[in-house]
Amino acid sequence: MKKNHIGKTIGYILFISLAIINLYPLIFSIFCSFKSNLEIFKSFTALPQQFRYQNYITAWNVGRIGRYFLNTIILAASTIIVTAFVGALASYILSKFTVKAKSTIHFFFISGLMIPIQAVLIPLSYIFGKLGIMNNYPMLVLLYSAFCLPMTILILTGFMKSIPSELEEATVMDGANAFQVFTKVILPLTMPGIISVSIFNFIQVWNNLLFPLIFISDKNKGTISMGLLAFFGEYSTDYSASMAGICLTTIPIIIAYVLFQEKIEDGLISGAIKG
What we know:
This protein starts with a helix and ends with a helix. Helix 3 (54-62) crosses helix 12. It has helices at residues 2-32, 37-42, 54-62, 65-96, 102-110, 121-131, 137-161, 165-173, 178-207, 210-215, 224-227, 239-259, 261-274. The chain has one domain: MetI-like fold. It is mainly α.
């Protein structure tokens, strides 16, 4: 009993320490977002002497947060829809159908996890420039989706393999075709996994800076990550406004996790067990 008590105590200390380490950057950003640049340089750990709410107004106007916020939402939502639809269909075929070279096709999709984004930037920028498709949202959505598909297929395939074939056979006996089986049986049962991967795909698109920075030159089509660069000049940096901008950009991620926390955790646990 004493050993178990010591083990629990060590575990609690470890988890509390990890929570503090992860929460510290967010708390640091919130405190600094209400300070002046002079206060930040003087003592970045101290509380603000006077709460400067105008930092958020500056961040909203200078960083064009409102415009870039809408642009990023459009890109993220479009990527989630495309990735969920294509990933679910591909996972359904790979998990439930007998296809020639199925393992090779599956490996082809999963191998995308091993390709870093930086490795394709130069050839993609050259191709996009030659084809004249810069500042093009549909092409950027397809590009995002291509990098989100490997993880989506990896997780959803494990979900669909665990679905009993008797359910599909019963639906076929009722006169349903393959697509109806997919929409009425497979898709509803795979929804926890789809929600989980959609949240991670949303975060990946929301935080991505390289793609919009290289493939979007029109300022009206910029993303939220590009807006934060407005506070970093060649000779000076507005740290107060940049911290306020960072706080504004993290709000959607926090809201999304709070709203879908149970579904994300259920999806990850179920995927780990079923996969």
